[in-house]
Amino acid sequence: MAAARPALKRAIPSLRSTFLLPRQQQQQPQCHHHHVTISRRSLSTSPSLRNDTQSTTTTTTPDRETHFGFSTVTESQKRAMVASVFTSVADSYDKMNDLMSFGWHRIWKDHFVSTLNPGFAPLSAPSGPSSPQHILDIAGGTGDIAFRMLHHAHAVNANPNVKVTISDINRAMLSVGKSRSTSLPASQQAALSFVEANAEDLSKTRALTPILSQQEQTFFDPSTATGGIPDNSVDLYTVAFGIRNFSDIPAALREAYRVLKPGGVFACLEFSKADKHPLFNSVYKEWSFRAIPLIGQLVAGDRDSYQYLVESIERFPRQEEFRDMIKDAGFTVSGEGWEDLTGGVAAIHRGMKPRV
Amino acid sequence: MASPAAVHCSGAARRILLLPTTVRPATRSLPGRLPAVASRSITSPSSTSRPQSRPTPKLQPPSSSSSSPPPRQPLQTRTYHSTTHPPPPGPFTPAETTLLTTALAAHVPTHGFTLPSLTLAARDLSLLDISPSFLGPSPTARLIHFHLYTARAALARLATQHGDLLSGGLSVSEKVELLTWLRLKQNEPVIQHWQQALAVMAQPSQVPTAVRELALLADEVYFLAGDKSVDPSWYTKRGALSGIYAAAELFMTTDKSEGFQETRRFLRRRLQEAEELGGVVKSVGEWVGFTASAGVNVLRSKGVRI
């Protein structure tokens, strides 16, 4: 937790100042020239956002349009905005998840992990013990999925031969995960590693470095990379409530395909569409568009980040479309290719990299 | 669809218009194939419209239509049996089929319908221990569903090979008995694990799949037996067979007799009972119908305005 504090303090001052947080008042922007033109009022006037945007545009290739909630922005702008959103919410992330979903996100995550069954190996195997299993948890930030994976592999399946890499573009989120991981058993901590990476290009990574000053940018800059994730090196690629925020989802899926071994499994837990049940869906939509931004404002002091959250859920492709995107990346799916949770509020998509 | 005559005319028109001769063979080959297609009603939604004289043409899809189906379409489903079109591809993708077939053939007889069977099959195919988890929330239920599906699909092939069914000397109810028995016999290699499989498929999350497969099986049996009923007995026949099949399947898991002869006798007794019961219900229905209309007519003759 302590490591995340500085990041929080410098997080999007104007986002907070819009909503009655006096301590941020003195940090109001001094000038507003030539920054991005987007429709969300407070995000467009954030000085920290503008800085972030400029530094990313220098490192990324052609900027195409994508969306940020209901606004249309360029990919690099979205990257910076998502970075600032998550920097801003890192500290209260888990508390907010509980409040927004009535704690139900824990059930989803437990189900996600136990159905993937990491570390399982048949006792009667004639070919001896299995090779080590490498799990890559993308956008794993606070470690929710990774810690469950480790527990399932080490404690439930009694297989210590499983290691987990948590990757996130945002150091503030990773730092929260890092500090939470200190309460794990030592054997599990030893099997855990943290890297900063952009999921759209996993050939450039950097081990997590602590955030020392408030001036440092909290999202990963590929030019500072020290390593990379090689081809065909991962058994299980998971991304839970993360892929929605990616600027270029097909690129991320192609990277997943690249790093997975043949036979490796891609698994994605993400919010989805519940419109098969109109009545339930209308209640759910009321809750997400009215209550969640309000809870965000009251609890995390940050309405706009949670407004973005619900808008990005709305913009995310339907189950079928996302399944087709996964197939387009080269994966093979089972049956219809996804599993609805809670009537489709969330969905798990699974795919396997076939052996060709 | 163009009628054969129209196609034939267009073929003639092409010749008159002196189109390149390379076009002709393809165009002219159509009328030869079309009459067989056009003479049957392909719009009929009845699942029972297949004449018995034509043994399962749906099993041999024309080579032209079996080449790669459009990739972007959702899995095709059809709610009726077609005599003119190949069956839809089914709910299993090719990669799944490979893995599940290996597991079913090589490991299920030893390890049962369990995750180790799937993991060992994945190793056989040089995949990873984690690979079976792409099969969805319950890989073992998927494996059992695959067995149910392949056994049902195999029934149509068996029906074309079985002499008694081809000879045409059997009545519909005798064919139903024989086909049900052929289906039951397909559980033989895995019979010691079948109680376990039934337990998995009885879990609430699997009940819809299990019930659907059972209904499809009953429908398949009556279709292959050549039943052509289009009255409410369409439902009662299939409902009764579903119940009898499920009971016989359970009976078979504890049957120690030679060649499961006790199971076959059990099946015959149950079908016999269903037929007798059906006869009774039918007779009662006829009596009630006759008496009611007679009663109405008596009242009418007395001047009651009904």
In terms of topology, how is this protein built?
The complex is a heterodimer of chains A (356) and B (306).
Chain A (H helix, E strand, L loop, with lengths): L4 H5 L3 H5 L29 H11 L7 E4 L2 E4 H15 L3 H9 L2 H13 L16 E6 L5 H13 L5 E7 L2 H11 L4 H5 L1 E7 L2 E7 L26 E7 L8 H11 E12 L6 H23 L2 H13 L3 H10 L9 E4 L4 E7 L4
Parallel strand pairs in A: 3-4, 3-7, 4-5, 7-8
Antiparallel strand pairs in A: 1-2, 5-6, 8-10, 9-10
Helix pairs in contact in A: 3-4, 4-12, 5-11, 6-7, 11-12
Chain B lengths: L3 H13 L7 H15 L24 H4 L27 H18 L3 H10 L14 H23 L1 H5 L4 H14 L8 H8 L5 H19 L7 H21 L7 H41 L5
Helix pairs in contact in B: 1-2, 4-5, 4-6, 6-10, 8-10, 8-12, 10-11, 11-12
Percent in strands of chain B: under 5%
In total, the number of strands of chain B is 0
Rg calc of chain B: 25 Å
Percent in helix of chain A:
40-55%
Total number of β-strand segments of chain A? 10
CATH topology of the largest domain in chain A: Rossmann fold
Cα Rg of chain A: 20 Å
How many domains of chain A? The number is 2
Count up the helices of chain A. 13
Q: How many helix segments of chain B?
A: 12
Measured between the Cα atoms of the first and last residue of chain A, the distance is 45 Å
Outline of chain A, from the CA principal axes?
Answer: globular
